[in-house]
Amino acid sequence: MAAPPAAVIWDDALLAYDLGGDHPFDPVRIDLTMRLARSLGVLDGVHPLSPTAAPDAEIERVHRPEYLAAVRAAPTAGWDVGHGLGTIDNPVFDRMHEAAALVVGGSLLAAERIASGAARRAINISGGLHHAMADHAAGFCVYNDCAIAISWLLDHGVDRVAYVDVDVHHGDGVQAAFYDDPRVLTISLHQHPLTLWPGTGWPTELGTGAAEGTAVNVPLPPGTTDQGWLRAFHAVVPSLLAAFRPQVLVTQCGADTHREDPMAGLGLSVDGHLATYRALRELAEQHADGRWLVLGGGGYELFRVVPRSWTHLLATVLDRDIDPNTPLPANWVAHAVRLAGDRPLPSSMTDGRDPGHQPWDGVAEEPVDIAVRDTRRAVFPLHGLDPDDPRD
């Protein structure tokens, strides 16, 4: 029997989540992604599902009612907003609650399609707002759609959810939401907290009480390239997913690990992103019966990186893999160049990098290997795994 099709959550109304002006979290990156995916035929025959705004009761799975009230009031409240609103990172914009609630609605719709069996995979590239906390906005994120969708899944027939965050920034809001909940495994690979906001995500952040060991953090040194990043990923993530046995894999797929991203300092390529997405797809098949909920996230090279990376992500979710050497369509380039100004655009779907990597062997003393060792030694014994044995 054929697997149900993957669900793509999209509506142009999602572009209303716009922090304005020259803010780096510009919805043009999502618009260009969808245009590129259409131009390459990735979405041929696919009918995107339009979300509706999440009701307060769903948002309050994670956020406090007084915070929702503050978000609603913020556009007319002047400067003294509080709750992390009205800052440089999180400026107030018109109909902010409605726009953020629609993003949450998109991730809830994705979760519903998976829980109901209507789809084994679902993707909302407008989602991934992983920094928002219970009572305040943070890191460009108003409502934490990732955590809300996970909470919804746990109330609709799912007993164990694994969340893997490959954004360059620590997935702090999702970790905080489930820090004492043993039903949720959160794994975040990110740039080292001494070198990048939000300054959290140490290997010693493990969860509390019965959830000890279900918060996993892999802090990577600045400059880490595809090879080191993928070595760390494969040395940590597959073993923990096998031990945890999730029923759904949720992934936040921020593209800001790229070497050209202006907000951070890792050194990945689009080719490394593609290798990661395909690895996540395989891990969902192996350990979550193929049930994979995919969200966007960060990514601030708006023209050269995010559209290519997330078009590969959409193609991976839909099993319509794109040859990295595929040229960028002329019609897409013509549109993008008008927006990019004098910034040159790439010519194809590859950066020309080989993302092949050497597996972690437990011996090497490179900075990436030390990071892997520290994480494994902190968390692997809590799952009955040998931290020093590369076979685990």
From TrEMBL:
Annotated region (Disordered), positions in chain: 343-363
Record keywords: Acetoin catabolism
GO biological process: acetoin catabolic process; epigenetic regulation of gene expression
SUPFAM superfamilies the UniProt entry points to: Arginase/deacetylase
Pfam families referenced in this protein's UniProt entry, alphabetically: Hist_deacetyl (PF00850)
Pathway the protein contributes to: Ketone degradation; acetoin degradation
Protein name, per record: Acetoin utilization protein AcuC
Organism: Goodfellowiella coeruleoviolacea
